[in-house]
Structures are given as C-alpha cells and as structure tokens.
Amino acid sequence: MREVTVIGGGPSGLAAAVGLAEKGYDVAVVEVMGELGGMLTQCIHDGFGTKVFGEALSGPEFSERLVKKARSLGLKVFLNTYVKEVRAGEGFKEVVAVSPGGVQRLQTRAIVYAIGCRERNGFEIRLGGTRPAGVYTAGMVQRLMNLYGVMPGRRIVIMGGGDVGMIVARHLYLEGAESILIVFPEAGFTGLPRNVQQCVLDFGIPFRPRTVVRRILGRERVRGVVLSRVDEKWNPVEGAEEHYACDTVVLALGLVPYAGELRLVVNMDPATRGPEVNEFFETSVEGVFAVGNLVQVFDYVDDAVETAHIAARGVEKYLNGEPRKNPVRLSPGRNVKTLTPQRVERVDEEDVVMFLRPAVEKANARIELRDREGRVLGGFFKRYVRPSTLERIEVPRSMLSNLREAVVEIAED
Amino acid sequence: MRKTEVLCTRCPRGCLLRVTVGNGDVTVEGNECPVGEKHGAEEALNPVRTVSTTVRILGARLPRLPVRTSQPVSKSRMMEVVAALRGTVVEAPVKAGQVILKNVAGTGVDIVAERDVEMA
Amino acid sequence: MFSLGSRVARVLKKYPYSLSFTVRDGVVFLSGEVGSHEEWVEIGLSVGRIRGVEGVVNKIRLKGSPRNDEKEEWRKRVFEENKKTVVGEYDVVIIGGGVVGAALARELSKYELKTVLLEKSPDIAAGTTKANNGMIHAGVEPPRGSLKRRLNVRGNAMYGRLAEELGFKLNRLGSVWLVTPRTLTSYRRYLPGPLYTLVLKHVLPRVVKIKGLLNGVRGIRIVRGRRVFELEPFAAKDAVAAVYIPPTAVVDPYEVAVALAENAEENGVEIRLETMVVGFIKEGDVATGVVTDRGVFLCRYVVNAAGLYADEVAALAGSEEYTIHPRKGVLLVFHRDTGVFTRHCLAEIILPQDPYTKGGGINPTVHGNVLWGPTAVEVPDKDDTSVTREEIEHVLNKYSGIVPGFPRDRLIRYFAGVRAATFTEDFVIRPAKWVRNLLHVAGIQSPGLAASPAIAEYAVEKLREMGLRLKPKKGFNPRRRPMPTAAGMSLEELGEKIRMDPAWGRIVCTCEFVSEAEIVEAVRRGARTLDAVKRRTRVGMGECQGSFCTLEIALILSRETGVPLNMLLKEEDRLFNGYVRGEQP
What we know:
The complex is a heterotrimer. Chain A is α/β, with parallel strands linked by helices. Chain A folds into 3 domains: 1-120 and 255-322, FAD/NAD(P)-binding domain (3-Layer(bba) Sandwich), CATH 3.50.50; 121-253, FAD/NAD(P)-binding domain (3-Layer(bba) Sandwich), CATH 3.50.50; 325-413, no CATH class. Chain A is built from 6 helices and 30 strands. In chain A, strands 1, 2, 5, 6, 7, 8 and 22 form a 7-stranded mixed β-sheet that branches. In chain A, strands 11-18-12-13-14 form a 5-stranded parallel β-sheet. The longest helix of chain A is centred in the last third of the chain and has 19 residues, at 301-319. Chain A is globular. By secondary structure, chain B is α+β, with helices and mostly antiparallel strands. Chain B is 16% helix and 35% strand. Chain B has helices at residues 34-45, 78-84, and strands spanning 2-7, 16-21, 26-29, 48-49, 52-58, 64-69, 73-74, 89-91, 99-101, 111-113. A 5-stranded mixed β-sheet of chain B has the order 8-5-6-10-9, with no helix packed on it. In chain B, strands 1-2-3 form a 3-stranded antiparallel β-sheet, with helices on one face. Chain B is elongated and about 55 Å long. In chain C, 31% of the residues lie in helices and 22% in strands. In chain C, α4 (99-108) crosses α11. The chains are: A alpha/beta, B alpha+beta, C alpha/beta. Chains A and C meet through β7, β10 and α3 of A and α10, β22, α12 and α15 of C.
C-alpha cells in the first residue's frame, strides 16, 4: 500500500510530494490536468521563489524546479486523473481516481490535499444585468492569453483591485488590448504595492477606486457596463451612475478554496472557507492533510510551499503513529480576518508557524497572542501591516502550554 | 530638475516616494526607512523591469511559449521589447533558458524561454 | 344586445387617452397612444378579457418612444435577396425550435411527410424554453375552460412515456402547496379569530382539491398538522395544512427539447438552425413559401411556433391576430447540496393570486439543484433577460418563508426567461383566420412545457382538419439514442465505458463530473456553441460557474468542429476576440 497520496500537482502538492519523497516515503501525485505545475504554468510574470530559491523566477520556472526534483526522485505521477472521492478503510484510505486509464482505487495511508482555489464569479457578488459572452474570470483570461494566444476582447473593464486583477491588466496591456479600466469598491488597490507600481502605474492603466459595476449590458456580447461610485460602506451613491462602453468584463473578485466534496468530510473554517487544520496542516480527519491555497489564500507561492514542508513533517508524525493531544483552539481576534492553523495538537520542538490576514492597515503594529481571559501571552512587532499582505509569525510552543484556547489579534493603539 | 513619483515595493507599507533628481544628486521624500530611500533613487535614476510575454511555437502541445528578458531592462524600453517579438516563431523542442532572441531591441538583454517544451 | 364592438368601446372609454379600434373576425386591432408600458399592457388585457374577443393586436404606441425602422429595413433587404432562391419543397414548415416546435417536429415525424423545422438561433431551445424552472405542472391552476388546462393535464400524463422513449430525465416528485397563516391574509377581516384557522385548515385545502378535481387532476391529497412535516420536514413551522399533488414532475426543459428534436431528425425531419424567417410568398390567401435568410422553403402547410416572435411571423404571413406582451420571470439557482431541503415542488398558497401567473415557489431540478421563483414582470423588450440586484432580493424575500432554514448563501446563479404571452392569455392553437394553410401555435406561456406533447398532438389534429393527409410512417422509431453521463452511472459502468473510449476518463468539468466523451457526443449530436454544449452536458452549471472549465470546453469544441478558438460562439456571438499581438496561429 502506498504511504502518501498527494492530490493536486501544483506548487504546494509538488513541494509536499518532493519533501516526503526526500524523506524516503513512497509518494504518488494525482493531477487532473495534463501536466504538473498548476496555476504557475500560466503565471509567466516573475516574482516567484524569492524566499524558496532566493531568485525572482517566473511561474513556469518555479514550477520547472519542482517538477525536475520530482522526476529525479522517481515520484509516481498520475496525470489527467481526477479524484472523485476518498473513502475511509480499516487503517487506510482509498482514493477513487478516474482517468483515461480507467477507474482506479488507490489505497494509501495518508493523503495530502493540494487542490487550491477557484475564482469568485459574478453571481457571488450579485452582479446584475445580462449574462452575455465576454464575461470571464481573470485566471481564465490569463490562461487564454498565455497558453493559447487568444485575447478575450478589445476594450476591457477589470473588476477588482487585488493582485490577480492587476497582473492580468498588465498581460492585457502588453499584448495589445485597446483599452483597459480597473474598478474596485475600496479606496485603494488591495494587492501588493509592487503590483500597483509594476502592473498599473508603469503603464498608466486607468483605474477608479470606490467604483463598482452595477450591471452588465449587452444581449449576446458585452456592450458596456453601468458603473456607480460607492461610499465607504460600498453602497452605491445616488445619481452617480454612468454607462461605460466596453466589450469584455474581467472578474478579479478574489479566490475561494475549492474544497468541493471535502467540505462534507472534514471540519471547515467559515473565515478562510478552507478546511480547519492543525499546526501540521492536518484536517479534522487524522491522516488527511491540506496544504497551499486550499487551506487559505496565500499571497506568495513561497508561503504556500512552506505549508507543504510543514505538512510533510506532520505526515511523518502520523505515519509514525504519534498520537494527537487535546487541541489548543486558535481563533482570529480583533483586527484579524483569518488565522491558520486553527488547532495546535501535536508534540514537537519547533515553533508553530501561523499565518494571519490583517483586517486593518497599520504602522508599527503589534500582533498579540492572548488567552481566553484576555491576558497577553506574547507579542510580535511588524513595521507595517495591511490586508493585502498575509503576515507570518513563529510562536514558541511554550507560549501555548496549558492552554485550551488562544486568540491572535492586532492591538489597537 | 526632474521630479518623479514611485511606489516603494520593498515592504507592505508601500510608501509613495517623491524623488527629485538634480545635477548629480537625488533627494527622496516620503520614505519611512533607508531601504525606501535607496529604492526611490534607483527607480528615479534607472528603473528596470523584467518583461514576460509569449511567442508563437510550432510543433508543441500548446501554441504559445512563455519567454522573458534574461535580465531586467530599462523601464522605458519595455514596449519596444514586446514589439520586437512580434511575429517571432519558434519550433519545439525548447529548453528552459534557451535564447530565443539575442539582444532584443538593442538593449543588450536576451529573450529566453521560461520552460521546457517537448515536441507534441 | 351588445356587439363585440360596443363592448370594446366601453372598456376603452375608461382610459384617459384617445384610443381607437377596429374589429375583424373576432380580432380587435387597437391604436392610439398611451404614456407607459404598464398601461399598454393593461388596456390590452382588459380588451382581451372581453367575451368573444379571439385576439388583440395592440398597435397602441408609447408616447415619446422612437421609431426603430432598422430591423424592418434589414428584413426587407434580406427578403429581396433570398426570395428567388428555393431551398426545397416541404409538406410542413415549422417555424420555431423551442420545445413546442420540437414536439411538433417529432409528432409529424411519425407520418409520411416532408417536414422541416426552422430556428433562427444556432441551437434548439435557445429562447424561452431554456429559461424556465422545468416544471411539468399537474394542471390545477389554469382556468377550467381554457385550452391551457386541457392540454396541460393531457401533456402531464404523456410525459412518463415520453421520458422513457426519448431518454430524458424526469422526476415525478409531486407538489406540496402549503397553507400557512399568510395564505388568506388579504381576507382576514372577513374571517375573524378562530374562523380564520378553520377556513385555512379545512375549507381552503378542500377548495383547492375540488378545483384540481374539476380540472381533471388525479390523486390530490390533503394533509394537516404534523403530517405536513412528514411530507416536507423543512417547511415553515407554522404551516397548518398542505395540498399534495402527485402528478407534478420536473425536467431539464432544454434536454426535453433537444431529445424531441434529435428523435424527429432521426425519423427524417430536417432541422435548419441559424435560419431566420423574413417573409412569405403568397398566392392569394395561401402561403406557398417561407422566405428566410437562407432561401425559400416552399410549403403546403406552415406552423407558426415562433414563441416570442410568433406575432411578427403571423403579421409577415398576413394573419396578424395577436400581439405578444413579453413577461419576464427571474429564477435563482442554488447548489446541488441544497437539494435535501425540499422533496417536492414546494409553494405557499397566497391569495388572491395574480390571475395570469402562478405564484412560483421552491423547486428541485432533476439534478438536485433547487430553483426559487419565477417572478412575473411585464417588460417592453422581448429580449430582456437581465436580472437586477433588486429582483434577486425580491425573490429571496418572497420565498424565504417557505423553508426558513434554507442556506441562501448557496446561491450559485440567477437567470431570466421571457414568456410569450398574448392578451387573451390562453394558448392560440388554431388555423389562421386570413391565411388558409397557416396554423398558429402561439401564446405558449406556462404551462407550455408541461403541455407540449399534447400541444403537438392537438396541433397535428388541427392540421389534419385543415386537409393535411397523415399516413403513418413505417419504421418510425420512437426511441432516441440515450445520452449517458459519467455523473449518472456507477463507477463500474464508468470503468467499462473508459475501456471502450478513454475520453470517458478525462474529467473536464470537476464541479459536475462531466467527461470529455460527453462533450464530444454533444458536438456529434449538433452542438456548435458553448451554450449548446452546456445545455446538453451540464458543464459550467456547478459551483465555479465555468471559471475552470469554459476554456477546456472551448478547446474541445474547437478541435471537434474545426472552428478556431478565436471564432467560437457562446450562443450567437463570439466568446473571444483577436490574438495576442495580432499573431494568428
């Protein structure tokens, strides 16, 4: 029986598989697409791997490194294979996989899910109007252009001020779109400043903060949109509507963990919308791990890959039969939107790595770990925090001893 | 005297730097740390960028090959670099790092393939 | 004795506008000017209600609305360009490829006839047929004397066999109509105190049952108290009684239409897509040819099943007897996970009910999704399938009382369809008054889908009365080749299928578990556009709403049809536009 099956061959899945194979475990990777690399194959811009490799690589280059490693380790890879379900057996798990080779039942002791996110669509934000050709999510547009060389349209409106929207704006600009306008309801871009400079300001791409698309116009193809200014609560301002002619609407509305059927099997965190995990990225079901964007949306692939390395150590503990302890439950507190992990429950020497999404923008911020009574157990100083940048802290285990619950927050001034 | 504005990208704060370039000297305002001062000066005097795009490829599974500048090029020449690649056609197989176009647009920088591509 | 004319005059006098009319063979032609679309509709409906009126042609203009002659000029030009090019000679030409046209085609395919169906879109069911909640009503609601009622009940009964022959999914789940404290709120002042509850629990359900019985609906049962929750565990806790109507079923309406059209085609009917009618060639009061943008189809008989455009087709033929007033219905789609919250088509009886629409409710689909709606709003534009945020909120508020715990955050999509309603608000299935060989099959609004097999049967009978000779075709095959799905088979069966064709093992839509083989089969059966593939295979109908699979499907479509990626259509317009840096592959 195989020791570990990794579901998802993107950067996180590959990193987990490579990490475990290097430790000598028998690992297989199951990937639904026809090649490994996940979303990285379409992210042709650079900026990946500054932490992991010390270089600013493009997506394909980063992915290539992991794939070559995997190949050199002789990792078993199943391409064009979709995991339909995972069943629990006596002391093992059964992965039901569908591929052009047939329906296979792969028995495995541990599973690492690394299936990433999907993009939020217009229906989730109640985008009104018609549903014509020409409305696409940003990731799809990126793939269409970078892998197939086709433009989605000529005159583009991009909804969303995050990283994905800005990066796709740059692709569109470089490849000859006639016009581009970026709109978003916040007061400023919500992505990394690097992207604001290098994707928007460098090219003078027009953008409008505090602006939303109220509805899409056009019967068979997008003809235009109705834009509206909004206030700080994102409510449309009376009389501030405008018709704007365009032929394409690109939705860059954010990513959501694509948990699918997993949602019915493990405990989920409504804040991250991903599975609840312990400090080794193990879900509520023992032996089932979740890494990468599936757990929560990461800004840098380097951080997503780190979760895979941590999980590899967790898989080792599981396969060695180390028992889980009573968990310390962690939750996001004041000024923190999401916190991972949600539980600490294994015996280990190393500090617990936690990732948190700030809900505020603040200079000289103090991230605090507090117990249920509100006593401060520890603090971490950050020069500047903002929602667009995921923060990472390393919490010594001693801070969590004898606790049942703890909260992580960003202190008010 | 030349004034320019640039967003610092060295930390999440993203200070808006106002840089003034005079005769042989540079002043940076708006930075909250010395790293930002350095960044502002670099950006004002010699901003460089990596350019990534795709070119046509024949005989492979997919019709486009992702390519990039081997080194960052001067920001002002980005669009020239992209235009210089217009009409370029490559044939599979290709190796990551392979030079697709030498000295693109006279910048002294090469265009290289970002990945291996096998023959279909 | 009041003549029809004087009755019309009396109705029109009530309005503060100068309106005039003429009457010809029971059809009232209205003209004049009013201020709003609502008034235009109201006047039309008031005249339509008059006893003896067989049709209302409403030419009343809206004050201040511009004349749009572009469409008419285009039509005239295309007519001139095509009127001499004969494509073929047919016994019957069916205009319209919705579920009614497709049902007609299939019915006619049982006879020795040369039949052709003309559809302006690139696919069957691209109009109103694809945009409703798929309910096969039992027939309780339509007015007893209406044609709607008769054909609804007959059609409902025909669906079981039809589903079996044509291999489409049918779920005969029944409806449950809840009686709650809100049911008779409008009449509360007539029913003080305990009388209200008494009427709710004992009188009203019986009245509904009797209405159903008189309409010819069988098996209606009344449940009260706790038994309501045995039927529907998640229903509003204050429901006091419920009427259970077993014959109600649900289908995927586009699957039904496509199945009918495929079987018709297998049995010799020609289906011509992307073919739009622009006029007729007449000899006296007989239409001898149907002129389209692809040439002339010579005909012995013409059937007008053109849905929203049936009035325009009728006018072109020279027998304009009705005007369509479009009525939009918005529907909300919830994820398959929510299917557990309702076991039947569920509605709350609220009286008085709008006489022209049903109340709508919470309805499962054959796949387990749940649909909320539809609304019913008069709109001036036949193509208005827009949905606003306000409409979404309206539907959420209207039906959230029926199943209070329903997870509304599992909303994955919303859409709208437009009903082709006439001012007499009943099916118009009769020979044209002023064109001898034209049969109207128009004004098919709800319960059109449920009635469609019966509409086809009835219409063909009318054709026979008009002189069409119906000789049964030897070798008519009622069975359509079924279209298996990966999602609908066991893993063992899927394994077998993959052994014979590996494309069954490549899953291209992970949200709904659809394989590449199904996409290829859909194209083989005539799907040429993304939406046509989507309707036949369910791709893009899940959680991600196409953000993952659209490109994959487009690639397969491109490969199978030979159309470059850049030129593929979503429905009637292209998905994409141009190449990166203008570089054509």
